[in-house]
Design goal:
- This protein has about 170 residues and is of the alpha+beta class.
- The protein folds into 2 domains: about 70 residues, SH3 type barrels; about 90 residues, Translation Initiation Factor IF3 (2-Layer Sandwich).
- About 20% of the residues lie in helices and about 40% in strands.
- It contains 2 helices and 10 strands, in the order αββββββββαββ.
């Protein structure tokens, strides 16, 4: 009789654990819950036995495994190990792209040319590439662009073409 009761309790506890949705975060953490709603930016969920609705931004979610077995994918983790991964770094001006990520430090990069006829856009791209390399070296996979400046690029202007960019690095938890 004790064995039957034990098996019954075990099956109830297993069905409770496996009868819930699982939010898999890009950090590798798992949230076992009931997904209530998926909006354009957020996933609303509640924990077992609670009425409180929690939000998590889709930027930090890899996938949801629903209790039905269906999987819905959201994002893939961008792995930046060193400056060599600089091309993986994303530059953004949208604050919604960094929601849920961990804020890092300010990063600034400059590029200049000794020739006054050098294209301003070319110097801006060089500065952006330098910014991505600095971000990658610090482990950031996304940079929120704060300012961009440029001067020169025309005949008759001395000092050549200059560009600078400033941003803030962000990464996963």
């Amino acid at each position: 009789m004790k064995q039957i009761l034990f098996l019954l309790m075990l099956s109830i506890s297993i069905s409770t654990v496996y009868g819930q949705d699982k939010i898999i975060k890009l950090s590798g953490d798992t949230i076992t819950c009931k997904v209530k709603e998926i909006t354009d930016d957020n996933i609303k969920y509640s924990y077992e036995g609670e009425d409180l609705i929690n939000n998590i931004h889709q930027n930090v979610v890899k996938e949801i495994i629903f209790k039905s077995g269906r999987t819905q994918k959201f994002s893939e983790r961008v792995i930046v190990n060193s400056e060599e991964d600089w091309e993986k770094v994303k530059i953004t001006t949208l604050e919604s792209d960094i929601t849920g990520l961990v804020k890092g430090e300010d990063i600034m990069a400059k590029a200049s040319s000794g020739w006054s006829t050098t294209n301003q856009g070319k110097m801006q791209m060089k500065a952006m590439d330098k910014l991505k390399k600095q971000a990658a070296a610090k482990g950031y996979h996304i940079v929120l662009l704060i300012t961009t400046t440029g001067t020169g690029g025309h005949y008759g202007i001395s000092g050549g073409t200059k560009a600078s960019v400033t941003g803030v690095g962000y990464k996963y938890e």
